[in-house]
Amino acid sequence: xxxxxxxxxxxxxxxxxxxxxxxxxxxxxxxxxxxxxxxxxxxxxxxxxxxxxxxxxxxxxxxxxxxxxxxxxxxxxxxxxxxxxxxxxxxxxxxxxxxxxxxxxxxxxxxxxxxxxxxxxxxxxxxxxxxxxxxxxxxxxxxxxxxxxxxxxxxxxxxxxxxxxxxxxxxxxxxxxxxxxxxxxxxxxxxxxxxxxxxxxxxxxxxxxxxxxxxxxxxxxxxxxxxxxxxxxxxxxxxxxxxxxxxxxxxxxxxxxxxxxxxxxxxxxxxxxxxxxxxxxxxxxxxxxxxxxxxxxxxxxxxxxxxxxxxxxxxxxxxxxxxxxxxxxxxxxxxxxxxxxxxxxxxxxxxxxxxxxxxxxxxxxxxxxxxxxxxxxxxxxxxxxxxxxxxxxx
Length: 394
Description:
Layout: E1 5-9, H1 13-23, E2 28-32, H2 36-55, H3 64-70, E3 71-74, E4 85-88, H4 94-105, E5 113-116, H5 123-127, E6 136-140, E7 150-155, H6 161-173, E8 177-182, H7 188-191, H8 194-205, H9 211-218, H10 226-233, H11 235-248, H12 257-264, E9 278-280, E10 283-285, H13 289-292, H14 308-328, H15 334-345, H16 351-358, H17 360-374, H18 384-389
Parallel strand pairs: 1-2, 1-4, 2-3, 4-5, 5-6, 7-8
Antiparallel strand pairs: 6-7, 9-10
Helix pairs in contact: 8-14, 14-15
């Protein structure tokens, strides 16, 4: 595996991040971009960076020819022929992905492996379009790549154990932790954010908090809050993801009307200057609280507590609920999902350890108490088996 050559299809935001990891690893890389001029320009810039790095003593000058040969950009798919693994990271267009993957499959050796970085399309469905689906699967990085340390390996229906092992080793070569999950619908780690983000939006609709208040509360237990995360991801994109998630998984959540309003008003997030926050000189500021409120909302009763401890409990238990639900569905393991969400939002404590410390009965009682007040989104019945399997508290 050491020194194997990886092909990369696409050099957009995610592609550039993946290439930066490849360039810092023992792996070689060939990057395909459609435009010959862009490929030539990227090669010139890479050549200059390597020369500056050698001159600056970042690596011995005698290694320069070897490093120059290790990384290159091309607009000719035939140059991917020597690759042992090719990762697709083009725009989320199913037909385009299939077209490129089929062309690459005809170029590389039969023993080569193919992967998709997509979080929207099922590796099983994509693999069904290929000649060798057993050598294909999901290899999903998270944005921003440099701030996350996990790679989600999504096992399609026909993905072979050998393919999974190659993906695991590749993740380790990139100094990333591999998390293996069964293909269901979209990225399982992204699904874990569903309850957290919806609960935060419900709090805003009910007038219980402002975005900055929610970030302050979550900041006591995690690095990244739901409002900052949504504004970074983009509200339009997340709205589409949430629609698919609520259709595919048995969450008992209402689609937040505030999210529809934000998208309708063109408030797409940080890069649009407005999202949940209004950005002034690149600083996030709360809008008028009246903007967030939804007088017709039915998810939060008027007598619901809005002290920091109560709001924090609701947010954290939604994180736990997502982990328990995906474990119940046998998409992955409790420990892997806990590690994944801990890495994504920077939780200060591992959820699996906390839940085992609480024990299944105490956790069930907490969910039942919240379900009595907020309704079925906290109902423990869909996660009963996994709750029962938790260790008793010490």
